[in-house]
Amino acid sequence: QVMSAFPKFQFAIDRGGTFTDVYARCPSGRVRLMKLLSEDPANYADAPREGIRRILEQETGRPFPADKKMDASEIECIRMGTTVATNALLERRGEPTALVVTAGFRDLLYIGNQSRPNLFDLTCAQPEVLYDQVVEAEERVVLCRSDCQLDLPSARCQGTTGETVSVVKPLNVPKLRADLERVLAKGIGSLAVALLHSYTFQEHERLVGEVALELGFRHVSLSSQVMPMVRVVPRGFTACVDAYLTPCIKKYVEGFTRGFQENLKDVAVLFMQSDGGLTPMHMFSGSRSILSGPAGGVVGYAKTSYSPLDRVPVIGFDMGGTSTDVSRFDGHFDHTFETTTAGVTIQAPQLDISTVAAGGGSMLFFRSGLFVVGPESAGAHPGPVCYRKGGPLTVTDANVCLGRLLPDHFPKIFGKNEREPLDKAAAMEALRKLTAQVNSCLGGSMTPEQVAMGFVSVANESMCRPIRALTQGKGHDSANHVLACFGGAGAQHACAVARALGMTKVLIHRYAGILSAYGMALADVVEEAQEPCALLYTSGNIGQIDARLKELSERCIDRLLDQGFKREQIEVEPFLHMRYDRTDCALMCPPEVSGGSPDPRASGDVVSSFGNFQGSFQSRYKREFGFVLRGRDIVVDDVRVRAVGRSCLTHSHQLPKAEGDPQPTEETQCYFEDRYYTTPVFLLNKLLAGHVVQGPAIVIDDNCTIVVEPGCHAQVLEQGDVCITVNQPAREKIGLELDAVRLSLFSHRFMSIAEQMGKILQRTAISTNIKERLDFSCALFGPDGGLVCNAPHIPVHLGAMQEAVQYQMKAIGDNILPGDVILSNHPQAGGSHLPDLTVITPVFYPGEPRPVFFVANRGHHADIGGISPGSMPAHSHSILEEGATFLSFKLVQAGVFQQEALTEALNAPALLPNSSGTRNLRDNLADLQAQIAANNKGIQLVRELIDHYGLAAVQAYMGHVQRNAELAVRDLLRGVAANAREKLGRAQLEAWDCMDDGSRICLRVQLKEDEGSAVFDFSGTGREVYGNCNAPRAVTLSAILYCLRCMVGHDIPLNQGCLAPVQVVLPRHSLLNPSADAAVVGGNVLTSQRVVDVVFKAFGTCAASQGCMNNITFGDDSLGYYETVAGGAGAGPDWHGRSGVHTHMTNTRITDPEILERRYPVVLEQFQLKPGTGGAGLYRGGDGVVRQLLFRRPLQLSLLTERRVFAPYGLQGGLPGSRGVNVLHFKNGRTVCLGSKASVSVSPGDVLCVETPGGGGYGIPLQSEEDSKQA
Predict the structure, then answer these.
(1) For labelling, which of 112, 217, 503, 514 has a CA lying 20 to 30 Å from the CA of 1202?
(2) H helices within 67-168, ranges in order?
(3) How confident is the model at residue 660 (pLDDT cuts 50, 70, 90)?
(4) Domains in the chain: ranges and CATH
(5) How confident is the model at residue 4 (pLDDT cuts 50, 70, 90)?
(6) Per the database record, which ranges form the Hydantoinase A/oxoprolinase domain (predicted)?
(7) What percentage of the chain carries pLDDT values higher than 70?
(8) CA gap 880, 866 in Å, rounded
(9) In the predicted model, is pLDDT for residue 1271 greater than 70?
(10) In this predicted structure, what is the pLDDT of residue 487?
């Protein structure tokens, strides 16, 4: 396995989606590079094999006929990364697969976490599931709890985590066998198995696997073996990925090896895994292969760009044709253990690589005054305009038009016959057409070069956003990094990206164009082993934890020894996956090694024989989140060992030293920022060590083009790498007048601030609601309190915080001082409902007496007191019954956290009859501190933006961005008005709908086509109700903003400009504008959905979705749990409604079944779709779900739901969706309907069954259901 000193050929290959790169070390010591198309069936069957054949033929001088098996006797090893599995996943071309899942959970993976990936996409489009058939295994295992009062079967055993489980229902093997035989008869030969709690109790999955293999299934992936981590949904996805892709990988590997004599029997063939380690080909599996290619690039730059002496961290910047991958290396590889790829959540160790849909092939658009790059891509076919295949205008075309890509230095592989050069003339013609569109809209006179430069700048900014998330979002300064650039397109943009991030150094490796392949040559062979755990990290348990680490270490070492490594070449890295008790954020921590420092036991740390894991966990937690939770137990979720077999690669390459100045081969005209520059062109293979190239310049290599911008200079290093020093202007001077390009850039920067705030909040919060369910939003506001941008987290928060900020400006005025932080939740102060706590912080800037901006965030707290646990009472009649209220509370005053006053306020509801103060004060305090930390991050980023551009410019572009959003909405309203006038003869729309209590919501929309404006008049809406479905004004504004954004159909800034063309009329003391004391908890989660239904009905946009959030709360004085449940989405003019998804005003995730049962005294008996509940139509509405909970001890249950009386409407002849139903089955056999709202005491053995509404259908149904499905 060790790459030795060239006795034979050694190959490292990256088989990408478009190109295959080959790095070969020959017996002579010579290095050969090759790049060829990954797919070229007319000339060869397999690109990696063809690359090997050509190099062998060229180096040996002997023929290696393409139609015969190759002699591999001169090959020592082949290392490969491949996108075969990734492409199969993206294109859904994997092995036909069936899924075995616990009965009652048939659609668990279809529902997933119930959120939709694109908040404003009414189709709720998501990739399809990977399985073709589902088998429900009759079996059930539950975790034993000390507080359980059910009579569970006595058959109990201890799981691998140390948890005790009860086998409630043994596996029904005869039924399973019959079901699997039917699946096998349909030609499905691959099986994924995911049973509840199999992470700790694996026996049932093992039996399923034995039966399946006995019956003849060719491949079986057990979730308990593929990745035995708690959370059945991602573990099930991972098992499905493994079953779906592993057969494809095996087929590819077998096809590859069949092209060689004796199938490469004596050649070490290794494949790169997603974690950056190599593994033998027979162990390469689908779930570990998703990042096989990109991982090679990360290893490549990590081992060539990072210096352990100066320890400057490196950002990897890999820009390809369709996307850009960014990652970070600081001497250690950052791994993540749960990622989403192609809509599938995968639990497996993977390098932490962020991808943004901006590459050379990203398409260019001009929309409503904004320059937009991507996310749509031209792909390899047809490719950009300059590829001569009729493609669209792209970033690559812009670079060609600016003179940064020179057609004469590109291979002639374009056009239909793939023999022509890049077509600059065609790209320029397409650019001129787009320029005319830009000038027509803006009334300006931009040149094509200025437009192209604008799009390049916007592309650069979009690529900076994930880098900021990777650095600033984790507490690092972007400027204190080196940018390591590789990939085919990255070197064209490196200087600009580095400058935008404050970096001063860019490194471009001599093999930058094939660095992923080179990374395979530098990579180590890795063996990993991981087991779940559920032990507290205590002195009493440390012996058991150490024993598991030792056993896993020996297992991994033995595997590497079997592969030919010597013991001294093997390094073992132990890890514990640790978290604080009752939190969700687990960190994978290596041990701290004392190294002569004071004994950690002196500080009370529990120390393992492998090192101090506790100190490591607390140090990392403090660094990432800003605090530690003193006195709280630490839980070990998983035990992991990573053993590395070092490859001992010592090959080096040195260039001769330069003796004079570099000589360009030619000069060209290249456009930078504002004009053309005479730009020298250098060939990299003609440059020597020490040569310095002053910008502007272009340096061309066989595999990439390096653009050295004005004010920068590039130096060739001893090993042939290029180091660019980037100048950093102290402050960029820009005008205050509108510039369309800068408008797009500032739109990105403002949104990036809100996004970074959200990342900090999610990371630093400890509650499930914020950290896991993502029930929060972050936003930036101008000095007038007007919304500048709102990161699209939860729709019901959109725009609502503007009213909260402006209320505080009026209420507190000049008493808003530096060091103050304001807390508010009252509906009269712009609040939505009381559990949503809004934290507002002013942004002061030196020399300015008043706030120059505001930052704020809103997060849902699990409990803030009131008459029921969870602060979501079903029958509240006054806001005082719903929990603690804050009108204008200074949470921090003059920099001091007001904990005593805050605690008193949170406990104040206990003074009322039948009410309680907060039931979880500790989490309230921790989450509020996290909200403060998120605002502090926003303040830091706003100040950095002002430092760079100046206050006047930043505030000017704040106004420009707001007016741009207004423009987009006016364009929409003009179109709607024209359409309404044509169809109805008048520019007026009307609609109404009812709440379940009969209250009407009425809407008349009066459109003015010439202005592009509208009056949303809710006159006629029912009175304020005695219950809690009253909706504060802010909630209605959020619903309107959400609807407008959905109807615009493309990205626009979410700010106060969106509502500028809209006047909203809300009758006083109505359901949508209640009095100050009205109960409102249901208005936020229920009435908001009905407002959306009425708006979309008036505009004829789509049929009604489930119109409800299905709020379920249970608890007592010691615990509280809150969830919202998915339902059916409404169908539209050309789409079927999605089933089992959250719609419209919410997008919160649902707690994984295993986490739910581990933490709370309930058993989830059923969670799946209810077929047929979606309304029929030419396009069917989505189906609702069935969710059934068994209670294990006495609790108080509250339900807040809707659409139990009035069904979700259909449109254009489509039928309504089914109404929802809430039923309680008492242990004594009695069954009752709970209605829309209920608060009831439940006992052990009682079962709640919630059936959520379906979505409405669209269009007149065809004669048969089959016809409708085909349509």
Answers:
(1) 112
(2) 84-91, 108-111
(3) confident
(4) 1-93+260-290 (3.30.420.40), 103-229 (no CATH), 291-359+461-498 (3.30.420), 362-455 (no CATH), 525-593+607-645 (3.30.1490), 740-960 (no CATH), 1103-1270 (no CATH)
(5) very low
(6) 235-528
(7) 97
(8) 7
(9) no
(10) 77
**The two structure tokens encoding residue 253:** 């590997």
Per the DSSP assignment, residues forming a β-bridge with 330 are: none
Q: What is the pLDDT of residues 890-899, one digit of tens each?
A: 999 998 999 9
Cα distances from 644 to residues 113, 271, 561, in angstroms, run 35, 15, 11
- Could you identify the residue written with the tokens 């509840």? 196
- CA nearest to 683, candidates 656, 648, 638, 716: 716
- Write out the two tokens for 145: 């709890």
Q: Please give the C-alpha separations between residue 436 and each of 432, 456, 1203, in angstroms, as whole numbers.
A: 6, 18, 51
What does the pLDDT look like over 979-1000, one tens digit per residue? 888 888 888 999 999 999 999 9
Q: How far is CA 800 from the centre of its chain?
A: 24
Intra-chain end-to-end CA distance of the chain, in Å = 56
Q: pLDDT higher for 886 or 369?
A: 886
Closest by alpha carbon to 48, among 84, 73, 85?
84
Q: Considering only CA atoms, which of 773, 911, 756, 759 is closest in space to residue 836? A: 773
| pLDDT score recorded for residue 547 | 94
Distance CA 1185, CA 1216 (A): 16
- Cα(886)–Cα(892) distance, integer angstroms: 14
Total Cβ atoms within 10 A of residue 543: 10
Report the chain's mean pLDDT, rounded to a whole number. Answer: 89
DSSP run (H or E) holding 1248? strand 1247-1251
Q: Smallest Cα–Cα separation from 854: which of 788, 903, 899?
A: 788
Least confident of 1-5, 652-656, 950-954: 1-5
Indicate if the pLDDT at residue 1266 is higher than 60: no
3 pLDDT above the threshold of 50: no
Comparing CA positions, the residue from 276, 316, 275, 318 lying closest to residue 296 is 276
The whole-angstrom separation of Cα 992 and Cα 1002 is 4
Token output for 1264 = 């048969």
Q: How far apart are CA 815 and CA 719, in angstroms?
A: 62
Q: Give the count of beta carbons closer than 10 Å to the beta carbon of residue 651.
A: 13
Q: What angle do CA 547, 549, 554 make, to 5 degrees?
A: 95
pLDDT over threshold 80, residue 1263: no
Distance CA 56, CA 51 (A): 9
The answer, yes or no, to whether residue 1264 has pLDDT greater than 80, is: no
Residue 788 near residue 961 (C-beta atoms within 8 A): yes
Q: Which of 37, 49, 40 is nearest to 252 (CA)?
A: 49
Q: What is the DSSP string of 748-802?
A: HHHHHHHHHHHHHHHHH--SHHHHTS--EEEEEE-TTS-EEEE-SS-GGGTTHHH
For the chain, the residue count is: 1271
Measured distance CA(626)–CA(1254) in Å, rounded: 44
